[in-house]
Design brief:
Strand order of the largest sheet: 31-32-34-33-35-36-37-38
Distance between the termini: 43 Å
Largest sheet: 8 strands, mixed
CATH class of the largest domain: Alpha Beta
Structural class: alpha+beta
Number of strands: 38
CATH architecture of the largest domain: 3-Layer(aba) Sandwich
Helix content: 10-25%
Strand content: 25-35%
Shape: globular
CATH topology of the largest domain: Rossmann fold
Number of domains: 4
């Protein structure tokens, strides 16, 4: 099991369009490497054996083939596999083509032959968001809605249960409860949000579900029988949007959330004797304090802890004494944790600032030795543990790299073999993909900024200068670029462009202090970090300083238009996709007007200085943009409402710089339709070639 703790989950939810804050459990925070395109394949790896140089890491002569666009725009055909406790079945998200778009379904396969047992589809735009086995034969699933390709599906708060064969469906919680549940006469519709808080150790088909009603100021924890849909209230707290953290024995001990008025994190602890909940003061918990899992005996728990905003330490804390012992810490980066079999025990921590690095907590533990052994078989790739069977004999693990979207294997300890269950997008040949080089840049005010540079494999000489595409990530807070396979970067590199991605101040992965450096600097120091990185790669002779374009989506679309405002002579073209372009309008949007937490978030991260907001808004500074611009947007985008792009387009036209325009009325925050995605890539290729010249 891998739990990856992401910075600023709360701010991510708000900025990417969330309303009332949901309860997000660690199981819902997706690891980048697990959400991939997959296709069927079978391969048996016998350990110990020779390294699979032919599969990962074999460096053949660079292949200059122009890879078809279709190979880059494939969504997750198969993703997020979950192994049943007995290892007889695997649940996986499968995308099938329906009405011109790839629609996610939940499909169950029998192992080892990978025969399909059942496929469960949801209505249009609804997706299986997350799912877990609650027994060897039954699963629970939370539902979400797809709102755009450039945003993760948005949870609806609905929770359902079903057997592995598709039978005994039960609607457990949600706003459609009365109509959907076979026990609808027992419960009315739940006008609220539910999220999985835990599964009883006995795996008896029950779950612990955290809930909050939208019109209520309380959070509740229930034990729910997934077959009968009956509920038993365990506890509640008069605070909305809390996530409950349970001991191994199912007793709730912590509840974490966000204060609606301030937008700051809160943590409550339940008294063992009285059952009452107490808010832990910030001076006692520190700036970041996040419980993860309890030890099997419930005498201690694992947590992330940061006293003053530095990258969090991974600690274990005694329930009786409160003493904390640091298990691992990195001064510069946040950590993710690798867990072993049940009872879940951590065996390694991982940093992701550059190429992921593993630090084993005990070099000689069984899981560390197994991880080392498996890793040797996949040079230049990263191995991650996903699920163990209850008896610990079988392990589902993933393998991925910067050049390959990855694969999923099932390892049998007794047999010493690993079956390749699914290969991620086999249309992509890793030998045709480009290396993603970690880089560091010193900003003009002395901050060390990291990122990635993806260079074409078609270099004819070592001193060849490439046309450059600056590709900022979204967010801006609590999001980051990582080393793993990036479809857009690889597409552009395959077409001959160098691609620069920078984790500017405000990005995730380096602690709260680094995130807060980006507050109220959206159009200021954040853009300075990007510009400083561009100038460094030009100075080092990597990029051609006369051929640079900006391209980004969401906040990246904002940056793509803001960069030529700040440096009019540095860029030759700009492409804004689903961007925000008028910062003052954010305070007029419905998502802000209807949520106190959203107001608090934007007040903290943007501020309300009208003069600064105007100076940081590309639509108010359009007269400074003298280069060709292409604007892309969806008419149903409620993350970056269309009013933003309307204002940007109007301002550019008024300034005498009419932009290229791609607007689809029925698309959201990023285009889903397959043919439209292909058309975007085709135009992206031609637009860059027109304004930067053929690479």
């Amino acid at each position: 099991m891998a739990i990856d703790y992401h910075d600023e989950v709360v701010t991510l939810w708000l900025f990417l369009g969330g309303g009332d804050l949901p309860s997000l459990s660690g199981q819902q925070q997706k690891d980048y490497f697990l959400e991939r395109n997959l296709m069927f394949a079978k391969f048996k790896l016998v350990l110990p054996m020779f390294s699979l140089l032919f599969f990962f890491g074999f460096e053949s002569e660079a292949q200059n083939r122009v890879v078809p666009i279709e190979d880059f725009i494939r969504q997750d055909t198969y993703s997020n596999p979950k192994l049943s406790p007995d290892g007889n079945h695997i649940a996986i998200k499968v995308r099938i083509m329906r009405n011109g778009r790839l629609t996610p379904t939940l499909t169950i396969y029998h192992l080892p032959e990978l025969s399909i047992v059942s496929t469960m589809a949801l209505p249009k735009f609804e997706v299986p968001l997350n799912y877990s086995w609650v027994s060897n034969t039954r699963l629970i699933m939370t539902k979400g809605i797809e709102v755009g390709l450039r945003e993760a599906p948005r949870a609806t708060g609905e929770v359902v249960a079903v057997d592995f064969d598709g039978k005994r469906f039960q609607y457990l919680f949600g706003y459609d409860n009365f109509r959907s549940s076979t026990k609808g006469d027992r419960y009315g519709d739940d006008h609220g949000y539910g999220s999985l808080a835990g599964i009883p150790e006995s795996q008896n088909g029950s779950i612990f579900l955290g809930t909050h009603l939208w019109r209520s100021n309380s959070s509740s924890l229930y034990e729910i029988d997934t077959v009968k849909a009956s509920r038993k209230l365990i506890t509640d707290i008069p605070k909305k949007g809390l996530t409950f953290h349970l001991q191994t024995n199912g007793v709730p001990r912590f509840a974490t959330g966000v204060d609606e008025e301030t937008g700051l994190r809160t943590i409550h602890r339940r008294d063992e004797q009285t059952g009452n909940w107490k808010l832990i003061p910030n001076e006692e918990s520190g700036k970041r304090y996040f419980p993860l899992l309890f030890t099997k005996d419930d005498e201690s728990f694992y947590a992330f802890s940061s006293s003053s905003g530095e990258p969090s330490a991974f600690v274990i804390e005694s329930m009786k004494t409160g003493n904390r012992r640091i298990l691992a810490k990195n001064e510069n980066e946040e950590l993710s944790i690798e867990w072993g079999e049940k009872p879940y025990t951590p065996f390694a921590v991982v940093t992701h600032g550059g190429i992921p690095q593993f630090q084993y907590l005990d070099e000689n533990s069984a899981n560390a030795l197994l991880h080392k052994l498996l890793s040797k078989q996949f040079p230049n790739a990263i191995v991650h543990f996903i699920d163990f069977t209850d008896d610990g004999n079988k392990l589902l693990f993933g393998v991925s790299s910067d050049r390959d979207p990855g694969s999923f294997y099932l390892f049998d300890k007794k047999a010493g073999t690993a079956d390749l269950l699914f290969s991620v997008n086999a249309e992509i040949d890793p030998n045709e993909m480009a290396e993603r080089r970690p880089i560091q840049v010193q900003s003009r005010d002395g901050k060390m900024i990291s990122g990635f540079l993806t260079l074409p494999k078609s270099a004819k000489t070592h001193d060849q200068k490439f046309p450059l595409v600056v590709y900022p990530h979204g967010g801006p807070h609590g999001v980051k670029d990582v080393w793993y396979f990036d479809e857009d970067a690889q597409f552009l590199a395959n077409r001959g462009y160098a691609v620069l991605q920078i984790n500017y101040r405000g990005s995730a992965g380096r602690g709260d202090n680094f995130i807060e450096l980006g507050y109220r600097e959206w159009g200021g120091k954040i853009q300075d970090d990007l510009i400083d990185a561009v100038k460094q790669v030009v100075k080092e002779g990597i990029a051609d300083g006369t051929r640079i374009c900006t391209y980004g989506a969401s906040f990246g679309g904002y940056s793509a238009l803001m960069l030529p405002v700040r440096e009019p002579n540095l860029f030759k073209c700009a492409i804004g996709y689903a961007g925000v372009y008028d910062l003052s309008y954010i305070f007029e949007e419905e998502r802000t007007r209807t949520s106190k937490a959203a107001v608090a978030f934007f007040d903290r991260t943007l501020g309300k200085d009208l003069e600064q907001l105007a100076g940081f808004s590309p639509s108010k500074q359009a007269h400074k943009i003298k280069i060709p611009v292409w604007l892309i947007h969806g008419g149903k985008d409620d993350v970056a409402p269309p009013e933003h792009v309307y204002r940007m387009r109007e301002a550019l036209i008024k300034a005498g710089n009419k932009p290229s325009w791609t607007f689809e009325d029925d698309e959201g925050h990023g285009f889903y339709d397959v043919q439209r995605k292909k058309a975007l890539y085709e135009k992206l290729e031609s637009f860059l070639a027109e304004h930067l010249g053929k690479p």
